[in-house]
Design goal:
There is one protein chain. By secondary structure, this protein is an alpha+beta fold. It contains 13 helices and 10 strands. Strand 1 and strand 2 form a beta hairpin. The longest helix is centred in the last third of the chain and has 24 residues. The two termini are 44 Å apart.
Length: 392
């Protein structure tokens, strides 16, 4: 490009208001677009260092709250108001409706089952037998490998290494707990250190090595992460009283159950990553509000929704989300507005990541219940019309 015009930078002061203003003026000149709203913000440009390069301003996203919501978790206990950033009309109202129905039926019970974050190195050998021998050697050296990996982090702990021999290759997944951080970068650094020790100390011949083999499926959906959790595996469940369901949602448990039987078939036909109504809606809106890595929605939304009728005729509903990747500390969580949203739920800082994951899963449960009931009661389209989806 002989006429390339690079984006302006100020060496040593690139996250200042002067640098942001310089870039805005440059973009306005190059595109002939006035950045009137983009340039209005209350945050200090210096605060985005480490979060966004070439800072010019902000995209203002509508933020609403859903609730109140009674949650009976092991970490999230009490009544919560949930911040949700979205441009989709009816979404927050629908989630609030689900939260009310669940709350009036005793609340959502939420359980964190397990949590892991991975990096997945690949080792290649002359033969499958050599790969198997190396796999056995990794088992023998596990304590030292853990020591090497954990020397790079104050909170990350290498829990176990999964292994698969394919042809003359050994695919691995190094599984860590990462405290209150999401942990992708943490596990990458830790695994790199461990693998450098492995490459330097294995007595055999490793013909090829890659820090990533692709089976950690970072920021991609995979069936692997449905079976082996990446992030936090969380189950949210509630028993909805039939009278509450009829009074507040104009639906009944039997029709809800029949709908689920049929939509399960549709999900199988489509090969869906999630068989419930719309887990990604609630997760995405909470991720944007609380400063999570928004690309992790693609992994976090996968899961299994299950519905049953109780002997008393009430509706049991649960969602199992095996890979919720969220953080209460680090990354975008410390940006001013995102921190406020986390603090709204008392989910900012160390020791709060599991609490946040429980609230996210409970929110998915509420949204799924509300949308399923809207379909049963034939109120889905009319609700969108009423709350602005079809404005002129």
């Amino acid at each position: 490009m002989t006429d390339r015009k690079p984006i302006p930078r100020i060496k040593g002061d690139n996250y200042s208001e002067d640098a942001a203003a310089l870039r805005r003026a440059f973009i306005e000149q190059q595109t002939d677009v006035k950045l009137t709203h983009t340039s209005h913000y209350s945050i200090d440009p210096n605060s985005v260092e480490g979060n966004a390069e070439n800072f010019i301003g902000v995209v203002q996203m509508p933020l609403g709250v859903a609730g109140p919501y009674l949650i009976n978790g092991e970490h999230a206990q009490g009544v919560f108001y949930v911040p949700m950033a979205t441009t989709e009309g009816t979404l927050i109202a629908s989630y609030s409706r689900g939260m009310r129905v669940i709350s009036e039926s005793g609340g959502a019970t939420v359980t964190v089952i397990e949590e892991f974050m991975q990096r997945a190195p690949l080792f290649e050998f002359a033969s499958a037998r050599d790969a198997r021998h190396f796999s056995d050697w990794l088992d023998q050296q596990h304590p030292t490998i853990c020591q090497q990996a954990e020397s790079t982090t104050s909170v990350g702990k290498l829990q176990h290494i999964q292994k698969w021999v394919i042809a003359n290759k050994l695919f691995t997944r190094f599984n860590y707990t990462t405290g209150d951080a999401a942990g992708q970068n943490m596990t990458g650094k830790a695994t790199h250190k461990a693998c450098q020790w492995i490459l330097g100390n294995y007595p055999g011949v490793i013909e090829n090595f890659s820090l990533s083999s692709g089976i950690e499926t970072d920021k991609k959906h995979s069936h692997m992460n449905l079976l082996h959790s990446r992030g936090k595996k969380v189950v949210a469940e509630a028993t909805i009283g039939k009278d509450v369901l009829k009074d507040l949602m104009r639906a009944d448990p039997e029709r809800m159950f029949r709908l689920r039987q049929r939509t399960v078939l549709g999900s199988l036909l489509a090969g869906s990553a999630y068989n419930g109504p719309h887990s990604a809606n609630g997760i995405a809106s909470m991720f944007i509000a609380t400063g999570q890595d928004e690309a992790n929605v693609v992994e976090s939304h996968t899961g299994i929704a299950f519905m049953d009728l109780t002997p008393a005729g009430d509706l049991y509903y649960s969602v199992t989300l095996p890979s919720i990747i969220c953080a209460s500390y680090g990354g975008g969580t410390g940006l001013p507005t995102q921190r406020e949203c986390l603090e709204m739920m008392d989910c900012y800082g160390q020791g709060k990541a599991k609490k946040l994951a429980e609230i996210i899963a409970a929110t998915v449960l509420a949204g799924d219940l509300s949308l399923a009931a809207a379909i049963v009661s034939d109120e889905w389209v009319s609700s969108h019309d009423q709350l602005g989806r079809n404005r002129p």
